Amino acid sequence: MRFSTLAIVSTIFIPALSVAAKTVDVVMADLPVGFPGVGVPKFLPRFEPPTVDINVGDTVRWTNKGTVPHTVDEGADCTAVANGQLFSSGPVPRGGTFEYTFNTAGEFPYFCLPHCAVGSMKGTVSVKANPTSANDA
Ligand SMILES: [Cu+2]
Questions:
Q1: Centre of ligand 1 from the C-alpha of residue 30, in Å
Q2: Cα-to-centroid distance, 54 and ligand 1 (Å)
Q3: What is the pTM for the complete model shown?
Q4: pLDDT at 118
Q5: Where is the Blue (type 1) copper domain (predicted)?
Q6: Could you tell me the distance, in angstroms and rounded to a whole number, from the CA of residue 115 to the centre of ligand 1?
């Protein structure tokens, strides 16, 4: 009697390939920075967490839990992507949210327009190719 490895592997892994899209939260607020216990605690506007890892098809939801408006602008070094900027929220007020669904794999640096110069309000979304996308080609 032959043992069908392929059948067993398929049975185990096919459900795992159906990865449901998810939403990941990032907070925008004045949060403590620096080294705990050293000097006076310092609060600066920033994104928390500053880096998120997601899969293609997932959504990032930024929520402003601070007191002043923030933006979510694709770009590095406080400079917006010149052409084809994927996302630019405009001012997100206190309590407001901005969402973007990433449909392409890659690294997407972003920043807050009014607070990038402070040096603290930058982030990166790292998007991995979804395992199922290999079957979509
Ligand atoms: Cu800001």
A1: 9
A2: 23
A3: 0.78
A4: 81
A5: 46-128
A6: 4
**Are residues 60 and 125 in contact, defined by beta-carbon separation less than 8 angstroms?**
yes
The answer to whether 66 and 97 have CB atoms below 8 angstroms apart is no
Report CA(83)–ligand 1 centroid distance (Å): 22
- Is the alpha carbon torsion for 7, 8, 14, 17 positive or negative? negative
Domain positions in the chain are 15-136
pLDDT along the chain (137 residues), means of 10: 50 58 95 68 88 97 96 96 94 98 97 89 94 53
Ligand 1 centroid distance, CA of 77 (Å): 14
Query: How far does residue 61's CA lie from ligand 1's centre (Å)?
Result: 15
Count other C-beta atoms under 10 Å from residue 75's C-beta. 20
Match domain 15-136 to its CATH number in 1.10.10.10, 3.40.50.11810, 3.10.350.10, 2.60.40.420.
2.60.40.420
